[in-house]
Amino acid sequence: MQLKIFISLLLLSLVACTPSDPYQDRKFQQQFYVFGTLVGITLWDESPEKAEKAAQTLVQTFQEYHQQWHSWQADSQLTALNQAIAAGESWQVHDSLISPLTVMAQHFYQTSDGFFNPAIGQLVGLWGFHADELPTGPLPSEKQIAKLLAAKPKMTDIQVKGHVISANNPAVQLDFGAFAKGYALDLIIEKLKSMGIKNAIVNAGGNLKAIGKAGDRPWMIGIRHPSPTEKVGVIAAIPVETEMSVVTSGNYERYREFEGSRYSHIIDPNTGWPVKGVSSVTVVDESATLADAASTALMVAGLQDWHRIARQMGVKYVMLIDGSHTVHVNPKMARLAEFQRRNLPDAVVSKPLE
Ligand code: ADP
Ligand code: MG
């Protein structure tokens, strides 16, 4: 893994320094693969020494976090906790992010009316998403799904008391895939700020958080068009010139296909089935943790409930792209997003969120 990271670093830093880039001298850009996630950093006007140190911090921190909360890796701390829960035992937290993640997950479970439910790890695994490769073959049976649903795993089954976590439902299996990357972004940006870095973008698997600016201009963060056949690629860009994150949850990267239909890796905890009818949801917020939790929750809430859940979760900017690629935005997001002129989508502006 170390060697793979080193090679990716070499290759990608070469790509980042193409001679046609007019900002090459002021911009530092590196990308790495950490446990299958593409992680990147872009800095503006930093010394090469500081920039290298920042890139190292990013990779090391991400590796460390991944080892803690990986959802299916045998030696992760989260796997150990899940084994304890399944056995009806409590788990002692050692210097770990699992405990704050659990507490925050309980909060988002409540504010999302249970659409965000990281206790449904068994369902996510049943659908085949506890693996690096995309699942193939027949879907799980109705019987298997019904059995897991009947056990009602939920975040309110869990108790966090000081350094001890326990659950009164052995069907709970925690899976923090829906917001751990966002939390990592918040923590890493804090580390960069404490190193004195003022202008940066960190990218964790397509979820971004920025501070400062790109020189005298705002950072521009693209929102990907959910259609794989769409040539333009980016549907809109978000200008960022203060601390802000842009997080997208979509059905276009991790999914399974069977008999011509596509099944997303985001599962509706009420039905046990992958969500339908929404291609992607982007949330912009200062907190990447909130933006990540909310973008997943709103995918599940869907066209009918996204507005109410966004309000409850305290989100201010939402862009939901439905199954027919109509864009739904709240008025603030409509003002913030810069749509590509050549690629103006059908858009519906909702009532304000605030
Ligand atoms: P990505 O990781 O691709 O950015 P998300 O942030 O939307 O996408 O997270 C999706 C992951 O969240 C799934 O792979 C699964 O691990 C987990 N998950 C799926 N459904 C739910 C749900 N209803 N609530 C909480 N977590 C979920
Ligand atoms: Mg998410």
Give the helix/strand layout.
Blueprint: H1 2-16, E1 27-34, E2 37-44, H2 48-69, H3 77-86, E3 91-92, H4 98-111, H5 121-126, H6 142-150, E4 158-161, E5 164-167, H7 180-194, E6 200-204, E7 207-211, E8 219-224, E9 234-240, E10 244-250, E11 255-258, E12 261-264, E13 278-285, H8 288-313, E14 317-322, E15 327-329, H9 331-336, E16 338-339, E17 347-349
Parallel strand pairs: 15-17
Antiparallel strand pairs: 1-2, 2-6, 3-5, 4-5, 6-7, 7-10, 8-9, 9-16, 10-13, 11-12, 13-14, 14-15
Helix pairs in contact: 2-7, 7-8
Bound molecules: adenosine-5'-diphosphate and magnesium ion.
Short précis:
With 354 residues, the chain is an alpha+beta fold. It is built from nine helices and 17 strands.
Order of helices and strands: HEEHHEHHHEEHEEEEEEEEHEEHEE
Approximate strand percentage: 15-25%
Work out the helix count.
Answer: 9
The distinct bound ligands, ions and cofactors come out as: adenosine-5'-diphosphate, magnesium ion
- Structural class determined from secondary elements: alpha+beta
Helical fraction equals 25-40%
Q: Which residues form runs of ≥5 with pLDDT under 50?
A: 1-19
Q: Report the span from N to C terminus.
A: 46 Å
Mean pLDDT: 90
Shape from CA axes? globular
Radius of gyration: 20 Å
Largest sheet: 9 strands, mixed
Note the quaternary state here.
Answer: single chain
Strand order of the largest sheet: 1-2-6-7-10-13-14-15-17
Number of strands: 17
Structure notes:
- The protein is of the alpha+beta class and 354 residues long.
- Helices cover 35% and strands 24% of the residues.
- It has 9 helices and 17 strands.
- It has helices spanning 2-16, 48-69, 77-86, 98-111, 121-126, 142-150, 180-194, 288-313, 331-336; strands spanning 27-34, 37-44, 91-92, 158-161, 164-167, 200-204, 207-211, 219-224, 234-240, 244-250, 255-258, 261-264, 278-285, 317-322, 327-329, 338-339, 347-349.
- The strands form 4 sheets. Strands 1-2-6-7-10-13-14-15-17 form a 9-stranded mixed β-sheet. Strands 3-5-4 form a 3-stranded antiparallel β-sheet.
- A hairpin with a 2-residue loop joins β1 (27-34) and β2.
- The chain is globular, with a radius of gyration of 20 Å.
